[in-house]
Write a structure and sequence with these properties.
Blueprint: E1 3-5, E2 12-16, H1 17-42, E3 48-51, E4 58-60, H2 61-77, E5 82-85, E6 90-91, E7 97-105, H3 107-111, E8 118-125, E9 134-142, E10 147-152, E11 157-159, E12 162-163, E13 176-179, H4 185-198, E14 204-206, H5 211-219, E15 225-228, H6 233-245, E16 249-251, E17 263-266, H7 268-280
Parallel strand pairs: 5-7, 13-14, 13-15
Antiparallel strand pairs: 1-2, 3-4, 5-6, 7-8, 8-9, 9-10, 10-11, 11-12, 15-17, 16-17
Helix pairs in contact: 1-2, 5-6
The protein binds L-MYO-inositol-1-phosphate.
The site of L-MYO-inositol-1-phosphate has 13 residues, from strand 7.
Length: 288
Amino acid sequence: MARAINRQDGAVTNHPAPLLAELKGVAQQVAVAAGELVRTMRQGHIEVAATKTTATDVVTEADTAAEKLILEMLRKLRPGDGVLAEEGGAAHSDTGFTWVVDPIDGTVNYLYGLPNYAVSIAVVHGEPDPQTWQVVAGCVHRPEDSVSYTAALGDGAYRQGTAIKVAAPTALSQALVGTGFAYSAKTRAGQAEVLTRVLPQVRDIRRMGSAALDLCAVAAGQLDAYFEHGLSPWDLAAGQLIVTEAGGVVTGLSTRQPSTAMTVAGPPQTVAELSELLAQARADEVGN
Ligand code: LIP
């Protein structure tokens, strides 16, 4: 039975393709259901239920309701799998697989009624450690236009079932580059300084408010590259696989793996040029 290959580092997985296809299907089924819930809730009045790291890092009642639905569905569809979810949902894995869940990525966009938000669901294999786990399938679903981005290891990346690919490499001066900013004022000040170094060197910057959808835009060739300091594993997991399965790379600056310190995504050559510029600006140290 065919085995998928992790194209980014060439590692051969031990997961049969039919299992990976099943996991991708579960990710999309659950993401679409949660997306419909939060889209419907958005038609009413949305309250901030709590704040997290700062007064602008909000959790809405929809984040909480969506995460509850996602965990209930995963318990039924994939009993024994683990869970690591943004709003606190967690479960130990008895199967070696763990679901990494962001019930609403782009929460501030959602709160303000802006359409660029998504449900991001990935399934990883191995220890629940972002530095060592292997993302094997995922879905980023955008409820406002009901568009799903999906990928399974070794099987390519898709938008609404149509294969997508990263943009052709381009000179940095011609590159449309996505980014985002932290909720901490101190970190944002450092990120603003990095931006003064990057902005004059690229075609333009787009700050669209959802890391998961930024990564999908890279995978679909709608951004030439993306970088951000401060991402959490649930912001990143599904979008990372969608980019690598679309022929791109997702890395850190001083590390092969992306991390909270820095995520850079895009075609390999563009990522290499952007990473050099970001390293000169010490972009992975803004949070220190
Ligand atoms: C968001 C990220 C975005 C980042 C925001 C925030 P959330 O995630 O998707 O890229 O710039 O600051 O972290 O909080 O909406 O799940």
